[in-house]
Design a protein that fits this description.
Belongs to the multicopper oxidase family. The protein is mainly beta. It is 6% helix and 37% strand. It folds into two domains: 326 residues, Immunoglobulin-like, CATH 2.60.40; 200 residues, Sandwich (Immunoglobulin-like). The longest helix has 10 residues. It binds ascorbic acid. The site of ascorbic acid has 7 residues, from α5.
């Protein structure tokens, strides 16, 4: 079956958290509509860019794009951006059931609200390894008063202005920013009585029934804890793969991740309950929490619960987050075990440094900038001047490196690419550092997202990864597969994947400001196997005026 969607992308004034600002919308809405399809279906989305003065591109997050690497929607990697006034058609097959998302992948545009969910059901007759009565979606976001332009210019200007912590957290596109924090109420820009903002009702539960919540996070900076007052959640799916059912009170969810949880309406049905999202890992005190109403039938679905909303867990308790990451393992028999060994291992060290007068993130000393000629086109057509010919380092000097005292270095900003043998098994070990070189004692959380593939998550550790000592301790028995994996502060994360999807693929920190500051790498595998590229992805950079 083929599902056709036609989307007009435009700026609209929105007051999602009561503060009015410009948001990038799909057919006037932010977040956009939920796409629903069944495994094996084809999704066709015709995108009309009506932004007037801004390009766009849309990424289908978690869809591997087998046989359609040009439909991944990553401007600068898999396509030329869609110019204002132009139309681009994405066509791809959803080959795995699961909970996925979509969002802008041009500059930092996701910050402006171009996002939504993409749900792929199992075909009729296929039984899932758990039961529920009905399902609902929960999309989590963070939201700023400042526009994406302010944020991007701040990050790239020599004086460097960080985006700062968000003003509010949104649940299904709604939140509440306290307008009284803005002296004169924001001069009319902020009003807490607008119908667009407020605490949304998640859904109305019938007592005794069990619900599947498909939860996704597309935050631009924040790591979150999500909970439902008085109820536990049983996690059954992560990023499209079944996990061993795991009961949690707080679900830690990082940008780019999705989870399905089962919730049974087993509490006093005469009242409603709070659902809440809270910031963890960064200072939560400047941000209004996300809240929503978990309603029981027969109550007014908008009636605020009679209790004080949950306070959320301690934001700086990294240990509890590492523990929860370690809890998730594959549901036996439902996830292919990893290959026993890897053909190649990349140790990827992140650092933040001043490079050429700008504050940048770099991986093994190289900071990624997106080229004007998309990698896929440049590599397929042999336009060698458009990407680095010297590959970035596979490792760093891990024997002598002190991750708590990274040296002040001069990295480079360029267009790096790791060329992987098609079909080879690759280990990636992400290594975090403490930013003492910049004069502060922090280490951030970085959720890393791999395009075009899923990864076996082999382990998380604290401190520095030691290939000899830690290599043997990895989970080779029942690791989960994911497309987004978290790197905890001061720690490391090890994953394995099979580079079996011909094309060019981004692997990056899913925080908008961090990837904008260069925190990503590019993988190429089997680009020569990619069939003739569609003309619609070509026409920018060195490919201007070319007809292939
Ligand atoms: O990328 C970032 O930059 C700032 C800080 O490291 C430098 O100001 C911050 O908190 C980030 O997450």
């Amino acid at each position: 079956k083929t599902h056709h969607h036609t989307w007009n992308i435009s700026y609209q004034y929105k007051s999602l958290d009561c503060f009015e600002k410009l948001a990038v919308t799909i057919n006037g809405e932010s977040p956009g509509p939920t796409i629903r399809a069944t495994q094996g279906d084809t999704v066709v989305v015709t995108v009309h860019n009506k932004l007037e003065t801004e390009n766009t591109a849309i990424h289908w997050h978690g869809i591997r794009q087998h046989n359609s690497p040009w439909a991944d929607g990553t401007a600068g990697v898999t396509q030329c951006p869609i110019l204002p006034g132009e139309t681009f058609t994405y066509r791809f097959v959803v080959d795995r059931p699961g909970t996925y998302m979509y969002h802008a992948h041009y500059g930092m545009q996701r910050v402006a609200g171009l996002d939504g969910m993409l749900i792929v059901s199992v075909p009729e007759g296929v039984v899932e390894p758990f039961v529920y009565d009905a399902e609902h979606t929960v999309l989590l976001m963070d939201w700023w008063n400042k526009t994406v332009y302010d944020q991007a210019v701040g990050l790239s200007s020599p004086s460097f202005k960080f985006v700062g912590e968000p003003q509010s957290l949104l649940i299904n596109g709604k939140g509440v920013f306290n307008c009284s924090r803005l002296g004169n109420g924001g001069g009319g820009a902020c009003s807490m009585t607008r119908p667009e903002c407020g605490w949304p009702t998640l859904f109305t539960a019938v007592p005794g029934r069990t619900y599947r919540l498909r939860i996704g996070s597309l935050t631009s900076l924040s790591s979150l804890s999500f909970e439902i007052e008085g109820h536990t959640m049983t996690v059954v799916e992560a990023d499209g793969y079944y996990v061993r059912p795991t009961v949690v009170k707080n679900l830690f969810i990082y940008s780019g991740e999705t989870y399905s949880v089962l919730v049974t309406a087993d509490q006093d049905p005469s009242r409603n309950y709070w659902a809440a999202s809270h910031i963890v890992s960064r200072d939560p005190n400047k941000t209004a929490p996300g809240r929503a109403i978990f309603s029981y039938a027969r109550n007014d679905p908008r009636a605020l619960p009679p209790t004080t909303p949950p306070a959320g867990p301690a934001w700086d308790d990294t240990g509890s987050r590492i523990n929860q990451s370690n809890l998730f393992v594959a549901l036996p028999g439902h996830v292919e075990p990893p290959p026993a060994r890897a053909d190649r291992r990349l140790l990827l060290l992140n650092t933040q440094n001043w490079i050429g007068g700008h504050l940048k993130w770099a991986i093994n000393g190289v900071s990624l900038s997106f080229p004007a000629t998309p990698y896929l086109v440049a590599m397929k057509q042999g336009l060698r001047s458009e990407f680095d010919q010297i590959p970035p380092p596979d490792s760093y000097d891990y024997k002598n490196y002190d991750i708590s005292r990274p040296p002040v270095t001069n990295g480079t900003v360029s267009h790096p690419v790791y060329r992987l043998a098609i079909g080879s098994v690759v280990d990636l070990v992400l290594q975090n550092t403490i930013q003492s070189n910049l004069g502060f004692n922090v280490s951030h959380t970085h959720p890393w997202h791999l395009h075009g593939h899923d990864m076996w998550v082999l382990g998380y550790g604290e401190g520095k990864f030691d290939p000899e000592a830690d290599g043997g301790k990895l989970n080779m028995r029942n690791p989960v597969m994911k497309n987004t994996v978290v790197l905890h502060p001061q720690g490391w994360t090890a994953v394995r994947f099979r580079a079996d999807n011909p094309g060019v693929w981004l692997f990056h920190c899913h925080l908008e400001s961090h990837v904008y500051m260069g925190m990503g790498v590019v993988f190429e595998a089997g680009v020569e196997l990619v069939p003739r590229l569609p003309a619609s992805i070509i026409g920018c950079g060195r490919t201007k005026g070319h007809h292939y």
